[in-house]
């Protein structure tokens, strides 16, 4: 009987240490990525990945300009970042909160709970998908005001 309890405790400890290691590796990888984007402007090209959709079609996908926008944000240039990808810049704080909350839950060895506030509609995921698709379509319309959404 006590062997089962000791085994369960050992598994819990290993799981907790594994979660902590994964979290530390994630934080280190994120810090390294932020450092690279901060010190090397994606607008200069180099070793950054190219957008396959843009390369194949010549159109801007919903994510085009995000790396350049993050670079501008890291240098405190909010307007320049918004001109490159307004949707990514607006979604970045949400992404930071989601990552932080999930990381905290992983650190604590629990599952992150995301109760939906009343003001958020039940089908919010589909609204988000629709928003991303609409942004991707509208930023390729070469007419004001949609042309403002293209990375420039
Ligand atoms: Zn793209």
Features:
mainly alpha, binds zinc ion
Write a brief structural summary.
With 152 residues, the chain is an all-alpha fold. Helix content is 64%, strand content 0%.
User: End-to-end span in angstroms?
Assistant: 67 Å
Rounded radius of gyration (Å): 20 Å
Main sheet attributes: strand count, strand direction, barrel closure: none
Ligands present: zinc ion
Oligomer: single chain
Strand-and-helix sequence, N→C?
A: HHHHHH
What amount of the residues lies in strands?
A: under 5%
Commentary on this structure:
By secondary structure, this protein is mainly alpha-helical. It has one domain (about 1-150). Helices cover about 65% and strands about 0% of the residues. It is built from six helices and no strands. The protein has helices at about 1-40, 50-55, 65-75, 80-85, 85-110, 125-140. Helix 1 (about 1-40) packs across helix 3 (about 65-75), helix 3 (about 65-75) runs antiparallel to helix 4 and helix 4 (about 80-85) packs across helix 5. The radius of gyration is 20 Å and the shape is extended. The N and C termini lie far apart (about 65 Å). The protein binds zinc ion.
Outline the fold blueprint.
Blueprint: H1 2-39, H2 52-57, H3 66-74, H4 78-84, H5 86-108, H6 124-138
Helix pairs in contact: 1-3, 1-5, 3-4, 4-5
């Amino acid at each position: 009987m006590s062997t089962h309890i000791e085994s369960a405790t050992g598994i819990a400890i290993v799981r907790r240490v594994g979660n902590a290691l994964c979290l530390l590796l994630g934080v280190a990888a994120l810090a390294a990525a932020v450092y690279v984007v901060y010190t090397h402007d994606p607008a200069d090209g180099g070793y950054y990945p190219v957008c396959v959709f843009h390369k194949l079609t010549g159109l801007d996908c919903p994510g085009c300009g995000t790396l350049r926008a993050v670079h501008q944000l890291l240098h405190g240039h909010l307007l320049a970042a918004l001109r490159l990808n307004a949707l990514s810049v607006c979604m970045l704080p949400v992404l930071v909160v989601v990552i932080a909350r999930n990381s905290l839950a992983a650190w604590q060895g629990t599952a992150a709970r995301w109760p939906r506030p009343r003001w958020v509609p039940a089908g919010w995921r589909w609204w988000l998908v629709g928003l991303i698709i609409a942004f991707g379509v509208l930023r390729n319309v070469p007419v004001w005001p949609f042309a403002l959404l293209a990375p420039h």
